[in-house]
Input
Amino acid sequence: MANIADRLTIQIDLSGFSFKITDQTGGTLFSGEKSFPSVSSYGLDFEAILKKELSSFSALGKKNNGTDVYVATPKFTLIPTHLYIKGEENKILSQVHKIGELDEVMSVEIPQYQATLIYAIPNSITSRIFKIQKRAKYYPSVYGMLQRMLDNTDNNKICVCFSKEDVHISAAEGNRLLLANSYPAKDFVTAQYYLFLVIKEVMFNPEFTTLQVMGPLTKSQTKDLSKYFKGVCTF
Output
């Protein structure tokens, strides 16, 4: 059972969601996942299914020390923090992405990269999560990937998140961010194509690079990726 010192992390994309409750040491106390095989957009159908499936886990509504929600959305952009102007998030993001009427535009600073991440989260997610965790914080999956790379002591770092419609990839050399982007990929083969395109662009040798993957992988996907990389780790 969760207690007030525990933290809740939820990962969501069009294919479903997964979650874990961790204690103060980072150990996993409880986890679960649900898939949404028939959903194609973050609309009313998605919200209805999300509402139903979230209610099947009573632990998600327990009080805790913080709730972080990561959404696999391609609607994000990174800008140097010295160019960021509070209140102009919509204007900046709309230059590179189409913002929906029910999208909620947010931002978070990443001081280690001297950058600010501006992103949009669908209201179908924020309104539904608010019902069970009113103080939840929302981020795009790429934010979790960037934080993971900061914790990684390797020199060459690459992180990926495979979602239903896109693949999200970030790369860094030491603490120097080289790339953070999303690419359209409705299948694993296409996602791999973009992953190796990035590997070539940043000039990493996969045989000496550990691939960090945000979210679950199937056994066959893990086996496939392990042919090329030094190691494959999920988080």
The chain has a mean pLDDT of 94. The two ends are 22 Å apart (CA to CA). DSSP finds six helices and 13 strands in the chain.
